[in-house]
Amino acid sequence: MFMYERLSVDEREQLLSVLTADQRDFLENEVKRGRRTVFENFMRDEKITALRLADEIKLEEDEMNVVDWMISDFDDFGPGNYGGQCACGRRLRYMFTVEHQKTGKKIQYGKQHLSTFLNIEVKDIDGYINELDVIDNELDELLWKIKDDQYYHEYYERLLDQTVVSESIKKHLELNVPFLDSQVNRLKKHFETQMEALEEEQQKIQREVDFEKRQAENKRIEELLREKKKIEDKLEAARKVQAEAECSRQQQKKEREERIAQEKIEKDTELVKATKAQLAYGATFEDIAYSLVLNGQHSAVAISQMLANDFGFDQHMSVSTMDRLFLYYDVLLALKKQVDHGNLIMDESSSVEDCIFYVNPFREEERINETEEVEQQTLALF
């Protein structure tokens, strides 16, 4: 199925804001129910039996029983965004809220300190985040489909017997909410099953026709043949609907992919144009790489391609299995220098396949603090 682009918190809220109250309530409550199930399963399946205090958090005696604690909320602020804050003060992309079910006490933790508090491995929390991502991805999938006016309700309408459909699918139809890809797959299977049943009935009738022929019961044969013709007409009509629906879906998918690809080309062209306009005469390789990040390109792989294609640098490819430009590693060195200087940050999602860099949103705050420290030191001298 098609992979839907991850929405930011602001983009998700903007798309939710145009829905009806019933539609928004349905989508948000489905997410909450899904998350609550994941929270409960995680606390049970990980067999958490004891707490370890972290970040000098003080617990009362009646708060020390691990069974009374539950993960009550999770926030993913998105790549490059550190809007969360751990109990230790560290800024976070992923923020968990644990809540004592009796006293109502709440504590916010990042991955590291949540693992310390629950006495488990960080890798177990990473797997847990992946489960939560699936739920958020389903919400993003529905919002993309609403934005693109792609509801896929035709997969329900073509069913010969609609009583087999689950209540969750009917709820989407009732509230005029698109079907998830997983729901479309279930509807396809229902359709295929009904088609197979029709074909089996057709074959059964054909066998009876053959038997009646041998018995020379012409009247019965004529009745069965009329029934067979009706079923064949239904099958042909259903196949035609199926072919038209699939053709329409493929065309929509192709148009969407072409639109996204064209938008990316236009965006990259404008980025290169803006960067060239800003660069001073004699700008270095490192200056150009850093300027591309400042103008919105965060992928080291994409920056190395722009440097080769649009700025005239070495276009030779590496012979490694990663199939990247030689100058990719020079880009990493240049941007990591900016990280060391505090101008950039490298995102947690960076891997051996690609490194992602963002402008440090807290750099100005650090400079103000440094200025205040220098002033205080100067006053101390006098």
Overview of this protein structure:
The structure is a single chain. With 382 residues, this protein is mainly α. The chain has 3 domains: 9-147, no CATH class; 155-261; 279-365, Arc Repressor Mutant, subunit A, CATH 1.10.10. Helices cover 59% and strands 8% of the residues. It contains 12 helices and 7 strands. The strands form 3 sheets. It has a 3-stranded antiparallel beta sheet with strand order 1-4-5. A two-stranded antiparallel ribbon has the order 2-3. A hairpin with a 5-residue loop joins strand 4 (94-100) and strand 5 (106-109). Helix 3 (111-118) crosses helix 4 and helix 7 runs antiparallel to helix 8. The longest helix is centred in the middle third of the chain and has 61 residues, at 218-278. It is extended. The protein starts with 8 loop residues before the first helix and ends with a helix.
Tag the structure with descriptive keywords.
382 residues, mainly alpha, Arc Repressor Mutant, subunit A, 3 domains, 3-stranded antiparallel beta sheet, two-stranded antiparallel sheet, 12 helices, 59% helix, 8% strand
| Approximate strand percentage | 5-15%
Q: Count up the helices.
A: 12
Spans where pLDDT lies below 50 across 5 or more residues: none
Distance linking N and C termini: 70 Å
Which shape, going by the Cα principal axes?
Answer: extended
Number of domains: 3
Radius of gyration: 30 Å
**What's the main sheet like?**
3 strands, antiparallel
Order of helices and strands: HHEEEEEHHHHHHHHHEEH
Question: Structural class, please?
Answer: mainly alpha
Q: Average the pLDDT over all residues and give the rounded result.
A: 82
